[in-house]
Design a protein that fits this description.
319 residues, 73% helix, elongated
C-alpha cells in the first residue's frame, strides 16, 4: 500500500515537471516563458517527490524553482526554495550540499533586505552540523552574529556568538573562544543583561585558567568589576576564590570552588572545563588589591616593609 502511494506521488511529481517545462517553452505565439507558472509547478513537484521519498529529485526540483524565481527577480522566494533544498539534503544526509545551499539562501535573504531571516537560516544550518562538523557550525553561528550586528541586534548577537564560543571551547580553540566570550559580554552589556554577564565572566575566567594564565584572568576580572552589581555578587567572590587558589596551587581549595553549584550547573562547555581543570604548583600569592587588604598601613613604603622582613628573618619570625 505504501509503495503504491509513493509511486502515485512520484508520477504526480513527474507530471508537474512536464508542466513546468511546458511553461518555460516559447513559440511563435508565446514570446516569453511563463516563469511564475514554472516556479509553481517545480515547487509542487518538489512536494510530491518529497512525499514519495525521492529526495534527490525533490532537491533538484527546489533548485529549479529557485533558478526560475531568480529570473523573475524574486530573490526572497528563491532564497526560500534554496533553503528548502538544503533541508531536503539534510534529510538525505547530504550535509555538505545542505550547508552550501543554506548559506546561499542566507546570502539572498540578506541581499533582499531580510537580515533577520538570513541570520535564522545560518543559525539553523549551524545546528544541523553542530555534532558532525563542529568547526563549520561555529563559523555559521559567527556569520549569524555578524549579520545581526549589521542590523544592531545585540541580543541576537549575544545568542549566536555564545553558541559559537561554546563549540570552540569543546574544540579546545581557547583563544578564539575567549574572543567570542568577550564579544558576548559586550553584546549583553549593550542590553544591560548584567546577570547573564556574570555567568559568561565565570566561563571566560575558566578559559584563562585552562590556558594556565591566572595573570590574564585577574586582569580580565578587574576590568569587569565596573559592571553594575558584579563586584558584590556571588559570582565575583567565586572568581576571586578561583584565581587565588589556582595561583597558590591550592588544589583542594580550587577544586572546592570549581565544584560549586554555580559552576556545576553552567553550560556543559564550562562545566567540562571546570571538571578537567589541572591545578599547577603554587606560583606565589597574588599581589593584594591594595595595601590595606594585606594588613599594611597605606603609608608604609617598600623600604619599611623590607626592614620588617629582615628583622623577622633575624629573629626567626618567618621560620
Amino acid at each position: 500500500m505504501a509503495s503504491d502511494i509513493k509511486q502515485r506521488k512520484a508520477a504526480e511529481a513527474e507530471d508537474h515537471i512536464r508542466q513546468a517545462e511546458k511553461c518555460m517553452k516559447t513559440s511563435f505565439f508565446k514570446w516569453r516563458p511563463d516563469l511564475d507558472g514554472a516556479a509553481s509547478e517545480y515547487n509542487k513537484a518538489a512536494t510530491c517527490y518529497r512525499n514519495a521519498k525521492c529526495l534527490k529529485e525533490a532537491k533538484d526540483a527546489c533548485i529549479k524553482a529557485a533558478e526560475v524565481q531568480l529570473q523573475m527577480n524574486a530573490p526572497f522566494h528563491a532564497a526560500k526554495s534554496y533553503e528548502q533544498a538544503g533541508l531536503i539534503c539534510k534529510e538525505n544526509n547530504m550535509i555538505e550540499d545542505a550547508i552550501n545551499l543554506m548559506e546561499y539562501a542566507a546570502k539572498l535573504f540578506q541581499e533582499d533586505g531580510s537580515p533577520d531571516t538570513a541570520a535564522l537560516v545560518l543559525d539553523r544550518a549551524g545546528k544541523i552540523v553542530e555534532i558532525s562538523h563542529p568547526s563549520k557550525s561555529a563559523q555559521l553561528f559567527q556569520k549569524a552574529c555578524d549579520v545581526s550586528e549589521i542590523e544592531d541586534k545585540p541580543r541576537q548577537c549575544a545568542e549566536f556568538i555564545g553558541k559559537s564560543s561554546r563549540i570552540l571551547i569543546h574544540l579546545q580553540k581557547y583563544d578564539e573562544a575567549l574572543a567570542g566570550l568577550k564579544r558576548e559580554i559586550d553584546y549583553l552589556a549593550a542590553v544591560e543583561n548584567f546577570p547573564a554577564i556574570s555567568r559568561v565572566l565565570i566561563g571566560a575566567i575558566l578559559v584563562y585558567l585552562k590556558q594556565n594564565d591566572p595573570v590574564g584572568a585577574e586582569q580580565f576580572y578587574n576590568s569587569a568589576l565596573g559592571y553594575p552589581g558584579f563586584g558584590d555578587s556571588e559570582e565575583a567572590a567565586l572568581i576571586d576564590e578561583l584565581i587565588q587558589t589556582y595561583s597558590d596551587g591550592d588544589e583542594e581549595g580550587c577544586r572546592a570552588a570549581l565544584a560549586s553549584p554555580t559552576i556545576k550547573f553552567m553550560d556543559n562547555a564550562f562545566a567540562k572545563l571546570a571538571r578537567d581543570m589541572e591545578i599547577p604548583a603554587g606560583m606565589g600569592r597574588r599581589a593584594p588589591r591594595n595595601q590595606e587588604t594585606a594588613g599594611i598601613p597605606s603609608g608604609t613604603n617598600q623600604s619599611s616593609r623590607a626592614q620588617l622582613e629582615d628583622e623577622d628573618l633575624e629573629e626567626g619570625g618567618l621560620c
